[in-house]
Amino acid sequence: MIALLATLAGWAVVTYGNAALGVVNPVLLPTPGAVAAVLVDAIRDGSLLRHVLTSLVRVAEGFGLAALVALVAGLLAGICTPVRLLIEPVIEFVRPIPPLAFLPMFLVWFGLGETSKVAFIGYTTVFPMFVGIAASVLSVDVMLLRAAASLGARRRELIRRVVIPAALPGIIVALRVGFGLALFVIVGAEFMGADAGLGYLIMEGRTFFNPAQIVLGALVLGLLGSLVNWLLLALERRIVPAQKGA
Amino acid sequence: MSIQVQGVSKSFTVGGATHAALTDVDIDVAERELICILGPSGCGKSTLLNIVAGFLPPTSGRVLVDGRAISGPGADRGVVFQEYVLFPWLTVAGNVAFGLELKAVPSDERMRIVRHYLTLVGLNAHADKYPVQLSGGMKQRVAIARALANDPAIVLMDEPFGALDAQTREVLQDELSRIQSVEPKTILFVTHSIREAVYLADRVVVMTSAPGRIKQVVPIKLGELRDRFAAEFTQYESELTRLVKEEVAKVHE
Protein backbone atom coordinates (compact mmCIF):
# COMPACT_ATOMS: atom_id res chain seq x y z
CA MET A 1 0.00 0.00 0.00
CA ILE A 2 2.75 2.42 1.02
CA ALA A 3 4.76 1.41 -2.03
CA LEU A 4 1.72 2.10 -4.22
CA LEU A 5 1.21 5.57 -2.72
CA ALA A 6 4.91 6.31 -3.13
CA THR A 7 4.72 5.34 -6.81
CA LEU A 8 1.72 7.62 -7.28
CA ALA A 9 3.57 10.45 -5.51
CA GLY A 10 6.63 9.87 -7.69
CA TRP A 11 4.47 10.03 -10.81
CA ALA A 12 2.88 13.29 -9.61
CA VAL A 13 6.26 14.89 -8.76
CA VAL A 14 7.78 14.04 -12.14
CA THR A 15 4.80 15.09 -14.27
CA TYR A 16 3.82 18.26 -12.40
CA GLY A 17 7.50 19.20 -12.16
CA ASN A 18 7.81 18.75 -15.90
CA ALA A 19 4.70 20.85 -16.47
CA ALA A 20 6.15 23.65 -14.32
CA LEU A 21 9.67 23.54 -15.77
CA GLY A 22 8.67 22.69 -19.34
CA VAL A 23 11.39 20.05 -19.93
CA VAL A 24 9.29 18.25 -22.53
CA ASN A 25 5.85 19.01 -23.93
CA PRO A 26 3.52 18.44 -20.92
CA VAL A 27 1.05 16.57 -23.15
CA LEU A 28 3.61 13.76 -23.51
CA LEU A 29 3.83 13.21 -19.74
CA PRO A 30 0.22 13.20 -18.55
CA THR A 31 -0.28 14.23 -14.93
CA PRO A 32 -2.51 12.26 -12.55
CA GLY A 33 -4.97 15.14 -12.86
CA ALA A 34 -5.13 14.88 -16.64
CA VAL A 35 -5.67 11.12 -16.46
CA ALA A 36 -8.36 11.60 -13.82
CA ALA A 37 -10.12 14.09 -16.10
CA VAL A 38 -10.14 11.56 -18.96
CA LEU A 39 -11.38 8.92 -16.52
CA VAL A 40 -14.27 11.09 -15.38
CA ASP A 41 -15.24 11.78 -18.99
CA ALA A 42 -15.05 8.10 -19.89
CA ILE A 43 -17.19 7.12 -16.94
CA ARG A 44 -19.71 9.87 -17.64
CA ASP A 45 -20.35 8.95 -21.27
CA GLY A 46 -20.36 5.21 -20.43
CA SER A 47 -17.53 4.41 -22.83
CA LEU A 48 -15.21 3.07 -20.12
CA LEU A 49 -17.75 0.50 -18.96
CA ARG A 50 -18.38 -0.52 -22.58
CA HIS A 51 -14.67 -0.98 -23.28
CA VAL A 52 -14.09 -2.94 -20.07
CA LEU A 53 -17.07 -5.23 -20.63
CA THR A 54 -16.16 -5.82 -24.26
CA SER A 55 -12.63 -6.86 -23.33
CA LEU A 56 -13.77 -8.98 -20.39
CA VAL A 57 -16.34 -10.89 -22.46
CA ARG A 58 -13.70 -11.63 -25.09
CA VAL A 59 -11.24 -12.77 -22.42
CA ALA A 60 -13.86 -14.89 -20.66
CA GLU A 61 -14.96 -16.62 -23.86
CA GLY A 62 -11.48 -17.24 -25.22
CA PHE A 63 -10.12 -18.33 -21.87
CA GLY A 64 -13.13 -20.51 -21.08
CA LEU A 65 -12.85 -22.37 -24.35
CA ALA A 66 -9.09 -22.80 -23.99
CA ALA A 67 -9.43 -23.94 -20.36
CA LEU A 68 -11.89 -26.64 -21.40
CA VAL A 69 -9.63 -27.92 -24.16
CA ALA A 70 -6.52 -27.72 -21.96
CA LEU A 71 -8.23 -29.59 -19.12
CA VAL A 72 -9.40 -32.48 -21.29
CA ALA A 73 -6.18 -32.72 -23.30
CA GLY A 74 -3.95 -32.17 -20.26
CA LEU A 75 -5.67 -34.87 -18.22
CA LEU A 76 -5.56 -37.29 -21.14
CA ALA A 77 -1.92 -36.58 -21.85
CA GLY A 78 -0.98 -36.83 -18.17
CA ILE A 79 -2.76 -40.14 -17.67
CA CYS A 80 -2.25 -41.87 -20.99
CA THR A 81 1.34 -42.03 -22.24
CA PRO A 82 0.55 -42.74 -25.93
CA VAL A 83 -1.63 -39.63 -26.09
CA ARG A 84 1.14 -37.60 -24.53
CA LEU A 85 3.74 -38.89 -26.97
CA LEU A 86 1.35 -37.96 -29.78
CA ILE A 87 0.49 -34.39 -28.73
CA GLU A 88 3.60 -33.21 -26.95
CA PRO A 89 5.97 -32.84 -29.94
CA VAL A 90 3.36 -30.83 -31.83
CA ILE A 91 2.78 -28.53 -28.89
CA GLU A 92 6.45 -28.11 -28.17
CA PHE A 93 6.93 -27.09 -31.80
CA VAL A 94 4.09 -24.57 -31.89
CA ARG A 95 4.52 -23.17 -28.38
CA PRO A 96 7.74 -21.15 -28.88
CA ILE A 97 6.21 -19.19 -31.78
CA PRO A 98 5.15 -15.84 -30.29
CA PRO A 99 1.34 -15.92 -30.47
CA LEU A 100 1.24 -12.34 -31.79
CA ALA A 101 2.93 -13.63 -34.93
CA PHE A 102 -0.29 -15.46 -35.72
CA LEU A 103 -2.63 -12.58 -34.92
CA PRO A 104 -2.88 -11.40 -38.56
CA MET A 105 -3.70 -14.98 -39.51
CA PHE A 106 -6.65 -14.98 -37.14
CA LEU A 107 -7.87 -11.73 -38.66
CA VAL A 108 -7.59 -13.25 -42.14
CA TRP A 109 -9.48 -16.34 -41.03
CA PHE A 110 -12.14 -14.90 -38.78
CA GLY A 111 -12.45 -11.29 -39.92
CA LEU A 112 -12.59 -8.23 -37.72
CA GLY A 113 -15.47 -9.36 -35.50
CA GLU A 114 -15.53 -11.03 -32.09
CA THR A 115 -14.56 -14.48 -33.39
CA SER A 116 -11.02 -13.49 -34.29
CA LYS A 117 -10.33 -12.03 -30.82
CA VAL A 118 -11.88 -14.95 -28.95
CA ALA A 119 -10.03 -17.45 -31.13
CA PHE A 120 -6.76 -15.58 -30.69
CA ILE A 121 -7.06 -15.53 -26.91
CA GLY A 122 -7.94 -19.20 -26.94
CA TYR A 123 -4.96 -20.00 -29.13
CA THR A 124 -2.57 -18.01 -26.94
CA THR A 125 -3.67 -19.44 -23.61
CA VAL A 126 -4.39 -23.06 -24.50
CA PHE A 127 -0.76 -24.25 -24.81
CA PRO A 128 0.68 -22.92 -21.56
CA MET A 129 -2.39 -24.17 -19.70
CA PHE A 130 -2.13 -27.58 -21.35
CA VAL A 131 1.55 -27.88 -20.45
CA GLY A 132 0.88 -26.87 -16.83
CA ILE A 133 -2.06 -29.22 -16.41
CA ALA A 134 -0.34 -32.20 -18.04
CA ALA A 135 2.74 -31.60 -15.88
CA SER A 136 0.75 -31.48 -12.64
CA VAL A 137 -1.08 -34.68 -13.57
CA LEU A 138 2.22 -36.36 -14.46
CA SER A 139 3.86 -35.30 -11.22
CA VAL A 140 1.23 -36.94 -9.01
CA ASP A 141 3.22 -39.00 -6.50
CA VAL A 142 3.27 -42.66 -7.51
CA MET A 143 3.17 -43.55 -3.81
CA LEU A 144 -0.32 -42.02 -3.52
CA LEU A 145 -1.42 -44.24 -6.40
CA ARG A 146 0.13 -47.28 -4.72
CA ALA A 147 -1.58 -46.45 -1.43
CA ALA A 148 -4.96 -46.15 -3.16
CA ALA A 149 -4.42 -49.31 -5.22
CA SER A 150 -3.61 -51.30 -2.10
CA LEU A 151 -6.91 -50.05 -0.65
CA GLY A 152 -8.69 -51.56 -3.66
CA ALA A 153 -8.89 -48.62 -6.11
CA ARG A 154 -9.07 -49.55 -9.78
CA ARG A 155 -7.99 -47.39 -12.72
CA ARG A 156 -11.13 -45.26 -12.94
CA GLU A 157 -11.19 -44.70 -9.17
CA LEU A 158 -7.50 -43.88 -9.15
CA ILE A 159 -8.11 -41.10 -11.66
CA ARG A 160 -11.17 -39.70 -9.95
CA ARG A 161 -10.11 -40.09 -6.33
CA VAL A 162 -6.34 -39.62 -6.50
CA VAL A 163 -5.03 -38.11 -9.74
CA ILE A 164 -7.53 -35.25 -9.97
CA PRO A 165 -7.48 -34.11 -6.33
CA ALA A 166 -3.69 -34.49 -6.14
CA ALA A 167 -3.18 -32.47 -9.32
CA LEU A 168 -5.79 -29.83 -8.46
CA PRO A 169 -3.46 -27.23 -6.91
CA GLY A 170 -1.23 -27.38 -10.00
CA ILE A 171 -4.25 -27.24 -12.31
CA ILE A 172 -5.51 -24.09 -10.59
CA VAL A 173 -2.11 -22.45 -10.95
CA ALA A 174 -2.12 -23.29 -14.68
CA LEU A 175 -5.57 -21.74 -15.07
CA ARG A 176 -4.45 -18.61 -13.22
CA VAL A 177 -1.45 -18.25 -15.49
CA GLY A 178 -3.73 -18.73 -18.52
CA PHE A 179 -6.13 -16.04 -17.36
CA GLY A 180 -3.31 -13.60 -16.76
CA LEU A 181 -2.04 -14.31 -20.24
CA ALA A 182 -5.50 -13.75 -21.73
CA LEU A 183 -5.65 -10.25 -20.21
CA PHE A 184 -2.14 -9.72 -21.53
CA VAL A 185 -2.86 -10.47 -25.18
CA ILE A 186 -6.36 -9.04 -25.51
CA VAL A 187 -4.73 -5.62 -25.82
CA GLY A 188 -2.71 -6.73 -28.82
CA ALA A 189 -5.75 -8.27 -30.44
CA GLU A 190 -7.72 -5.08 -29.96
CA PHE A 191 -4.96 -2.92 -31.41
CA MET A 192 -5.78 -4.44 -34.77
CA GLY A 193 -9.23 -4.05 -36.16
CA ALA A 194 -11.49 -3.47 -33.19
CA ASP A 195 -14.13 -0.86 -32.45
CA ALA A 196 -14.27 -1.36 -28.70
CA GLY A 197 -12.25 -2.79 -25.81
CA LEU A 198 -9.41 -1.51 -23.67
CA GLY A 199 -6.87 -2.13 -26.41
CA TYR A 200 -9.00 -0.02 -28.72
CA LEU A 201 -9.22 2.71 -26.05
CA ILE A 202 -5.42 2.82 -25.91
CA MET A 203 -5.06 2.83 -29.70
CA GLU A 204 -7.62 5.61 -29.94
CA GLY A 205 -5.50 7.59 -27.47
CA ARG A 206 -2.61 7.26 -29.88
CA THR A 207 -4.63 8.12 -32.98
CA PHE A 208 -6.10 11.27 -31.46
CA PHE A 209 -2.85 12.14 -29.68
CA ASN A 210 -4.23 11.86 -26.17
CA PRO A 211 -1.49 10.23 -24.00
CA ALA A 212 -3.65 10.60 -20.88
CA GLN A 213 -6.10 8.16 -22.43
CA ILE A 214 -3.27 5.68 -23.11
CA VAL A 215 -2.21 5.84 -19.47
CA LEU A 216 -5.83 5.42 -18.37
CA GLY A 217 -6.20 2.26 -20.49
CA ALA A 218 -3.02 0.83 -19.07
CA LEU A 219 -4.03 1.59 -15.49
CA VAL A 220 -7.47 0.02 -15.90
CA LEU A 221 -5.82 -3.11 -17.34
CA GLY A 222 -3.46 -3.31 -14.39
CA LEU A 223 -6.35 -2.93 -11.98
CA LEU A 224 -8.39 -5.62 -13.72
CA GLY A 225 -5.42 -7.96 -13.76
CA SER A 226 -4.76 -7.66 -10.04
CA LEU A 227 -8.47 -7.93 -9.25
CA VAL A 228 -8.85 -11.14 -11.24
CA ASN A 229 -5.65 -12.60 -9.81
CA TRP A 230 -6.87 -11.81 -6.31
CA LEU A 231 -10.23 -13.48 -7.01
CA LEU A 232 -8.56 -16.60 -8.39
CA LEU A 233 -6.23 -16.79 -5.39
CA ALA A 234 -9.21 -16.57 -3.05
CA LEU A 235 -10.94 -19.30 -5.05
CA GLU A 236 -7.82 -21.46 -4.85
CA ARG A 237 -7.68 -21.07 -1.07
CA ARG A 238 -11.33 -22.14 -0.85
CA ILE A 239 -10.90 -25.23 -3.01
CA VAL A 240 -7.60 -26.49 -1.60
CA PRO A 241 -7.45 -25.50 2.03
CA ALA A 242 -6.15 -28.85 3.13
CA GLN A 243 -2.80 -28.93 1.42
CA LYS A 244 -1.67 -25.50 2.56
CA GLY A 245 0.47 -24.52 5.47
CA ALA A 246 2.10 -26.41 8.36
CA MET B 1 -4.64 -65.76 4.53
CA SER B 2 -1.17 -67.12 3.99
CA ILE B 3 1.58 -65.84 1.71
CA GLN B 4 4.03 -67.98 -0.26
CA VAL B 5 6.98 -66.24 -1.84
CA GLN B 6 8.41 -68.78 -4.29
CA GLY B 7 11.81 -68.39 -5.93
CA VAL B 8 11.45 -64.64 -6.31
CA SER B 9 14.32 -62.79 -7.98
CA LYS B 10 14.38 -59.18 -9.06
CA SER B 11 16.90 -57.25 -11.08
CA PHE B 12 16.83 -53.65 -12.22
CA THR B 13 18.34 -52.23 -15.36
CA VAL B 14 19.69 -48.72 -14.96
CA GLY B 15 21.49 -47.10 -17.89
CA GLY B 16 22.14 -50.42 -19.60
CA ALA B 17 23.67 -52.04 -16.52
CA THR B 18 21.65 -54.77 -14.84
CA HIS B 19 22.05 -55.41 -11.16
CA ALA B 20 20.33 -58.00 -9.03
CA ALA B 21 18.34 -56.77 -6.04
CA LEU B 22 16.92 -60.11 -4.88
CA THR B 23 18.05 -63.64 -5.59
CA ASP B 24 15.84 -66.67 -5.21
CA VAL B 25 13.83 -65.73 -2.13
CA ASP B 26 11.42 -68.27 -0.59
CA ILE B 27 9.27 -67.35 2.38
CA ASP B 28 6.10 -68.94 3.71
CA VAL B 29 4.05 -66.73 5.98
CA ALA B 30 1.34 -68.64 7.84
CA GLU B 31 -2.07 -67.16 8.55
CA ARG B 32 -1.91 -64.63 11.42
CA GLU B 33 1.86 -64.88 11.61
CA LEU B 34 4.01 -61.76 11.96
CA ILE B 35 7.27 -62.05 10.09
CA CYS B 36 9.96 -59.39 10.25
CA ILE B 37 12.37 -59.05 7.37
CA LEU B 38 15.65 -57.76 8.70
CA GLY B 39 18.71 -56.76 6.76
CA PRO B 40 21.27 -54.04 6.04
CA SER B 41 20.09 -51.12 3.93
CA GLY B 42 20.12 -51.85 0.22
CA CYS B 43 19.52 -55.58 0.72
CA GLY B 44 16.30 -55.48 -1.27
CA LYS B 45 13.90 -55.96 1.64
CA SER B 46 11.66 -53.10 0.54
CA THR B 47 11.78 -54.43 -3.03
CA LEU B 48 10.53 -57.77 -1.71
CA LEU B 49 7.65 -56.05 0.06
CA ASN B 50 6.77 -54.08 -3.09
CA ILE B 51 6.65 -57.35 -5.02
CA VAL B 52 4.33 -58.97 -2.46
CA ALA B 53 2.16 -55.83 -2.52
CA GLY B 54 1.94 -56.17 -6.31
CA PHE B 55 3.58 -52.80 -7.03
CA LEU B 56 6.51 -54.43 -8.85
CA PRO B 57 6.52 -57.65 -10.89
CA PRO B 58 9.27 -60.12 -9.96
CA THR B 59 11.85 -60.86 -12.65
CA SER B 60 11.32 -64.54 -11.90
CA GLY B 61 9.40 -66.56 -9.35
CA ARG B 62 5.95 -65.83 -8.02
CA VAL B 63 3.94 -64.77 -5.01
CA LEU B 64 0.89 -66.76 -3.92
CA VAL B 65 -1.79 -65.51 -1.58
CA ASP B 66 -3.88 -68.42 -0.29
CA GLY B 67 -2.49 -70.50 -3.14
CA ARG B 68 -3.39 -68.03 -5.89
CA ALA B 69 -0.76 -66.06 -7.81
CA ILE B 70 -1.08 -62.29 -7.43
CA SER B 71 -1.12 -60.04 -10.49
CA GLY B 72 -1.13 -56.57 -8.91
CA PRO B 73 -2.07 -54.62 -5.82
CA GLY B 74 -5.35 -55.49 -4.13
CA ALA B 75 -7.51 -54.76 -1.11
CA ASP B 76 -6.58 -58.16 0.39
CA ARG B 77 -3.08 -56.79 1.09
CA GLY B 78 -3.06 -53.54 3.04
CA VAL B 79 0.17 -51.54 2.96
CA VAL B 80 1.69 -49.18 5.54
CA PHE B 81 4.52 -47.09 4.09
CA GLN B 82 7.50 -45.56 5.83
CA GLU B 83 6.56 -42.08 4.56
CA TYR B 84 2.90 -42.52 5.65
CA VAL B 85 1.55 -41.51 2.17
CA LEU B 86 -1.72 -40.08 3.46
CA PHE B 87 -4.05 -38.31 1.02
CA PRO B 88 -3.36 -34.65 1.88
CA TRP B 89 -6.72 -33.40 0.53
CA LEU B 90 -8.70 -35.66 2.88
CA THR B 91 -9.22 -35.35 6.63
CA VAL B 92 -8.02 -38.03 9.01
CA ALA B 93 -11.49 -39.62 8.92
CA GLY B 94 -11.58 -39.27 5.12
CA ASN B 95 -8.26 -41.09 4.83
CA VAL B 96 -9.44 -43.95 7.04
CA ALA B 97 -12.74 -44.16 5.12
CA PHE B 98 -11.02 -44.28 1.69
CA GLY B 99 -11.13 -48.05 1.19
CA LEU B 100 -14.62 -48.32 2.68
CA GLU B 101 -15.96 -45.76 0.20
CA LEU B 102 -14.48 -47.77 -2.65
CA LYS B 103 -16.35 -50.79 -1.35
CA ALA B 104 -19.52 -48.66 -1.11
CA VAL B 105 -20.01 -49.45 2.58
CA PRO B 106 -23.15 -47.53 3.70
CA SER B 107 -22.34 -44.25 5.39
CA ASP B 108 -23.40 -45.00 9.00
CA GLU B 109 -21.60 -48.34 8.93
CA ARG B 110 -18.59 -46.57 7.45
CA MET B 111 -18.60 -43.97 10.20
CA ARG B 112 -18.84 -46.66 12.85
CA ILE B 113 -15.82 -48.50 11.39
CA VAL B 114 -13.80 -45.30 11.04
CA ARG B 115 -14.50 -44.38 14.66
CA HIS B 116 -13.57 -47.89 15.80
CA TYR B 117 -10.15 -47.78 14.16
CA LEU B 118 -9.43 -44.20 15.14
CA THR B 119 -10.15 -45.23 18.73
CA LEU B 120 -7.89 -48.23 18.31
CA VAL B 121 -4.97 -45.94 17.38
CA GLY B 122 -6.00 -43.21 19.82
CA LEU B 123 -6.88 -40.50 17.30
CA ASN B 124 -10.62 -40.05 17.74
CA ALA B 125 -10.17 -36.44 18.80
CA HIS B 126 -8.35 -35.63 15.55
CA ALA B 127 -10.82 -37.06 13.03
CA ASP B 128 -11.46 -33.72 11.30
CA LYS B 129 -7.85 -32.60 11.02
CA TYR B 130 -5.85 -32.67 7.80
CA PRO B 131 -2.57 -34.62 7.52
CA VAL B 132 -0.44 -31.42 7.46
CA GLN B 133 -1.69 -30.67 10.95
CA LEU B 134 -0.38 -33.94 12.40
CA SER B 135 2.99 -35.04 13.79
CA GLY B 136 4.87 -37.95 12.19
CA GLY B 137 3.71 -40.41 14.83
CA MET B 138 0.08 -39.33 14.40
CA LYS B 139 0.33 -39.61 10.62
CA GLN B 140 1.61 -43.15 10.93
CA ARG B 141 -1.27 -44.01 13.27
CA VAL B 142 -3.68 -42.71 10.62
CA ALA B 143 -1.92 -44.82 8.00
CA ILE B 144 -2.25 -47.91 10.18
CA ALA B 145 -5.93 -47.18 10.87
CA ARG B 146 -6.49 -46.62 7.14
CA ALA B 147 -4.96 -50.00 6.29
CA LEU B 148 -6.80 -51.88 9.06
CA ALA B 149 -10.22 -50.25 8.47
CA ASN B 150 -10.23 -51.79 5.01
CA ASP B 151 -10.07 -55.19 6.76
CA PRO B 152 -7.30 -56.79 4.69
CA ALA B 153 -6.28 -60.31 5.67
CA ILE B 154 -2.66 -59.34 5.09
CA VAL B 155 -0.82 -56.20 6.16
CA LEU B 156 2.51 -55.30 4.58
CA MET B 157 4.58 -52.79 6.55
CA ASP B 158 7.64 -51.15 5.01
CA GLU B 159 9.78 -49.75 7.83
CA PRO B 160 6.63 -48.08 9.15
CA PHE B 161 8.31 -46.65 12.25
CA GLY B 162 11.66 -45.87 10.62
CA ALA B 163 11.09 -42.12 10.38
CA LEU B 164 9.96 -41.72 13.99
CA ASP B 165 11.89 -40.83 17.13
CA ALA B 166 12.80 -43.65 19.53
CA GLN B 167 10.01 -42.99 22.07
CA THR B 168 7.20 -42.72 19.50
CA ARG B 169 8.60 -45.79 17.85
CA GLU B 170 8.29 -47.93 20.97
CA VAL B 171 4.80 -46.60 21.70
CA LEU B 172 3.66 -47.58 18.21
CA GLN B 173 5.34 -50.99 18.51
CA ASP B 174 3.34 -51.54 21.70
CA GLU B 175 0.17 -50.46 19.91
CA LEU B 176 0.82 -52.73 16.97
CA SER B 177 1.39 -55.79 19.17
CA ARG B 178 -1.75 -54.89 21.18
CA ILE B 179 -3.81 -54.55 17.97
CA GLN B 180 -2.32 -57.81 16.69
CA SER B 181 -3.58 -59.58 19.84
CA VAL B 182 -7.10 -58.13 19.35
CA GLU B 183 -7.47 -58.43 15.56
CA PRO B 184 -4.68 -60.66 14.32
CA LYS B 185 -3.53 -60.30 10.70
CA THR B 186 -0.93 -61.96 8.55
CA ILE B 187 1.87 -59.39 8.67
CA LEU B 188 5.06 -58.97 6.69
CA PHE B 189 7.08 -56.27 8.42
CA VAL B 190 10.28 -54.83 6.95
CA THR B 191 12.69 -53.20 9.38
CA HIS B 192 16.36 -52.55 9.95
CA SER B 193 15.87 -52.34 13.71
CA ILE B 194 16.89 -55.52 15.49
CA ARG B 195 15.05 -54.59 18.70
CA GLU B 196 11.90 -53.95 16.73
CA ALA B 197 12.15 -57.33 15.04
CA VAL B 198 12.68 -59.22 18.29
CA TYR B 199 9.84 -57.30 19.94
CA LEU B 200 7.26 -57.90 17.21
CA ALA B 201 8.08 -61.01 15.19
CA ASP B 202 7.02 -64.62 15.39
CA ARG B 203 9.92 -65.30 13.05
CA VAL B 204 12.70 -63.05 11.80
CA VAL B 205 14.00 -63.48 8.25
CA VAL B 206 17.56 -62.18 8.05
CA MET B 207 18.63 -61.08 4.57
CA THR B 208 22.14 -60.97 3.13
CA SER B 209 23.59 -57.77 1.73
CA ALA B 210 22.91 -57.03 -1.94
CA PRO B 211 21.84 -58.98 -3.88
CA GLY B 212 19.41 -59.95 -1.15
CA ARG B 213 19.10 -63.61 -0.31
CA ILE B 214 17.71 -65.25 2.79
CA LYS B 215 20.58 -65.78 5.20
CA GLN B 216 18.72 -67.34 8.08
CA VAL B 217 15.25 -67.61 9.58
CA VAL B 218 15.17 -67.14 13.35
CA PRO B 219 11.98 -68.09 15.23
CA ILE B 220 11.45 -65.83 18.25
CA LYS B 221 10.12 -68.07 21.01
CA LEU B 222 9.02 -65.38 23.42
CA GLY B 223 5.49 -64.99 24.79
CA GLU B 224 2.86 -62.50 23.71
CA LEU B 225 3.88 -59.80 26.16
CA ARG B 226 7.53 -59.13 25.57
CA ASP B 227 9.90 -57.39 27.93
CA ARG B 228 12.59 -55.47 26.07
CA PHE B 229 14.94 -55.92 29.05
CA ALA B 230 14.48 -59.63 29.73
CA ALA B 231 17.54 -61.86 29.41
CA GLU B 232 16.04 -63.98 26.60
CA PHE B 233 15.15 -60.82 24.70
CA THR B 234 18.71 -59.50 24.77
CA GLN B 235 19.95 -62.95 23.83
CA TYR B 236 17.90 -62.88 20.62
CA GLU B 237 19.08 -59.33 20.07
CA SER B 238 22.75 -60.27 20.22
CA GLU B 239 22.26 -63.33 18.03
CA LEU B 240 20.53 -61.23 15.33
CA THR B 241 23.08 -58.45 15.74
CA ARG B 242 25.85 -60.95 14.98
CA LEU B 243 24.04 -62.20 11.86
CA VAL B 244 23.38 -58.68 10.54
CA LYS B 245 26.90 -57.48 11.34
CA GLU B 246 28.41 -60.18 9.16
CA GLU B 247 26.40 -58.77 6.26
CA VAL B 248 27.20 -55.14 6.98
CA ALA B 249 30.88 -56.08 7.15
CA LYS B 250 30.64 -57.65 3.66
CA VAL B 251 29.39 -54.34 2.27
CA HIS B 252 32.42 -52.53 3.65
CA GLU B 253 35.00 -55.04 2.41
How do you describe this structure in short?
The complex is a heterodimer of chains A (246) and B (253). With 246 residues, chain A is mostly helical. Chain A contains 10 helices and no strands.
Task: Give the tags.
heterodimer, A: 246 residues, mainly alpha, 10 helices, 0% strand, B: 253 residues, alpha/beta, six-stranded mixed β-sheet, four-stranded antiparallel β-sheet, 10 strands, globular
Written description of the protein model:
The complex is a heterodimer of chains A (246) and B (253). Chain A has 246 residues and is mainly α. Chain A contains 10 helices and no strands. In chain A, 80% of the residues lie in helices and 0% in strands. Chain B has helices at 45-53, 92-102, 107-120, 136-149, 166-182, 194-200, 231-252, and strands spanning 3-14, 17-29, 34-38, 60-65, 68-69, 77-80, 154-158, 186-191, 203-207, 214-219. The mean pLDDT of chain B is 91. Chain B is globular and about 55 Å long. In chain B, helix 2 (92-102) packs parallel to helix 4 (136-149), helix 3 packs across helix 4 and helix 6 packs across helix 7. Chain B has a 6-stranded mixed sheet, with helices on both faces. Chain B has a 4-stranded antiparallel sheet with strand order 2-1-4-5, covered by helices on one side. Chain B has 253 residues and is α/β, with parallel strands linked by helices. Chain A binds chain B through residues 141, 143-144, 146-153, 157, 161-162, 165-166, 168, 240-246, and chain B through 53-55, 72-75, 77-79, 81, 83, 85-91, 98-99, 102-103, 130-133, 146-147, 150, 156.
